[in-house]
What does this fold into?
Amino acid sequence: MSVPARGVTALFGPSGCGKTTLLRAIAGLERYRGGFLKVGDMNWQEGDCFVPPHRRPLGYVFQEASLFEHLSVRRNLEYGIKRLPRAGRKVSLQQAIELLGIEHLLERKPAHLSGGERQRVAIARALAVSPRLLLMDEPLAALDLNRKQEILPYIESLHKDLDIPVIYVSHSPDEVAHLADHLVLLEAGRVRASGAISNMLTRLDLPLAHGSDAEALVEATVAGHDEAYHLTYLDSAGGRFTVMRKALPVGSAVRLRVAARDVSLTLEPQSGTSILNIFPATIDELIPEGEAQVTVRLMVGGMPLLARVTRKSASLLNLKAGKPVYAQAKSVALLS
Amino acid sequence: MLSGSDLTALAVTLKLALLSTLILLLLGTPLAWWMARTRWRFKFLLEAVIALPLVLPPTVLGFYLLVALGPHGPVGGLMEWLGARSLAFTFTGLVIGSVFYSMPFVVQPLQDAFSAVGRRPLEVAATLRASPLDRFFTVAIPLARPGFFTAAVLGFAHTVGEFGVVLMIGGNIPGETQVLSIAIYDHVEGLEYVQAHWLSGGLLLMSFLMLIAVYALNRRFSVVRP
It folds into this structure.
């Protein structure tokens, strides 16, 4: 397996597929004979050479916050910093504290924190050691929905604000859609496939495109706002999307999710429709989905989309690979 | 009230208990740490050996120690060959006996405490650049602190209360090996019930206070298991 040393790479797969084991091996917490691991220009494991975890410049966020219960929040944060050489301190303690919004918790003991606060402190603690690589093992899995919503923006901002590559273990498609740039799909201890997130989600040979929640992700930038109709225009590789107005500055990057079940296909450009997001597209590939449906992978410019239509429609429209069609997206969700 | 010889016995007892507890904590900490973390399949054999004094009559332990430490035993013989005197009926012999006798009372609470800490905090420390020794001193020991308190108090109290082992290997030499429990025995033998009451009552009160401290400060304290 090889992953890019930038952005967020998600290790994704069902429980027990080896995601956590892989992450622990990257950290050096597990040791496998004959393993090979290289991060950037650093060899962490090769043959008899094994760099122990405390000599690897990484940060690790565990599923449970695992704060040191005998130390205050401040001393938890300082634990790793004290052990760094001065030259290695690139992220300041203050930066980590501000990024995770935990100024008001510093003098407390971990026992007096909520689940969400504990996990924020744990993330700040891992960041404060200025890691060259940040490993996160389902940091949101032990939290309820509200706590997840509380922390997700912090994790999103950390990969925008700090240029630290992140490897993120998750079995939640929703978290992956929010955070990942790159996806590694694991199955029964092996890497099934890996690649850019937008490509992986729409590959018809992988299970991701076949669930009832199958979707495509679109990277876009805010192009402008329509004050009269209260709309926002977003430009992507595939064309311009129109969504309800969001208070975002022009030029900011956003991610859209387009669910396969919300995309319908026509042979002619539709007039007299209420749908605003219509794009000329080419059918790339299509395969049956159960008895009654077909999943279609479309290319809109360079951008892949999925459409879920009935087998009857596919037959009536004579849908096949290479055929030009028009894709209309009934709804589009803005992720960030 | 307490006579001069009673005070001497008290001094010997406290010295013995403090010294034994100190040695037990120094030996017991690495041993308990290793036992809490090893996956060695014959660990149960070592656990059984350490727990022996819980069930063995103290006189049996004392007898074997006497044989080993006496002039004709392996340890005592070696001492004499080196030009020192054998360890039977000496304060040093008494300390050695106490260390064996009180071992489970120190090792078991420590082992339980280290097990309760678990691997996770140590793994976290490893990812925060702490070396194995650093992790042991800055994470494992502070988190196992309740266990250290329990181990120290139980080791101390149990050493103060020993009788059989002392009688076998220490004898009854005032100022060297006569401890409180033996002094009480002497008083009763001599029908000096007033002195016996003072010493017994004092020991009872001290033991009770120490256990109250353990239970109050350390609610997760688990009774030493045989």
